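Our consortium's second objective concerns turning raw sequence data into structural hypotheses that experimental partners can test. To show how far this objective has progressed, the report includes one record in full. It was chosen at random from the queue rather than selected for favorable results. The single chain below, 136 residues long, was entered without modification.
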Amino acid sequence: MIRVFYGKKGMGKTKSLIDQANQLVSEGKGDVVFIDDSSQLMYDLKHEIRFINISEFPIKGHEAFLGFLCGVIAEDYDIEGIFIDGLTYIVKEKTENLAGFFESIRQISEKFNIKFFMSINGDSDIAPEFLNQYMQ
């Protein structure tokens, strides 16, 4: 399952991600990972959530980020949910160029039974068509 929170800055996407992550770790049976490009949100998350500040790693582009995610999953087969705040800031690419990335994430999600939650800044009136199936 993939859920995308897509909209303009200031619409509460990050708050929704935090709330969902905290809820999943409370109600779920597996591990939860939260990925952001700074440590600012770390203290808003329950301590059981594995927080990763992606800016500490030399990730450039969606392919490198996909490899990073696969490494995180390979290290911990108990992951139930992965939360990614600000996907386009992390991969430094435009949303419309990420259709292949989302197809890979869909396959990973199905194979390993992992829920992916992501926030992306953008105008929801002109969101890329491939995102419609994942949007909140």
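The partners drew two points from this record. The first strand starts at residue 2 and ends at 7. Residues 2 and 69 are 14 Å apart (CA to CA). Both points have been shared with the crystallography group to help prioritize constructs.
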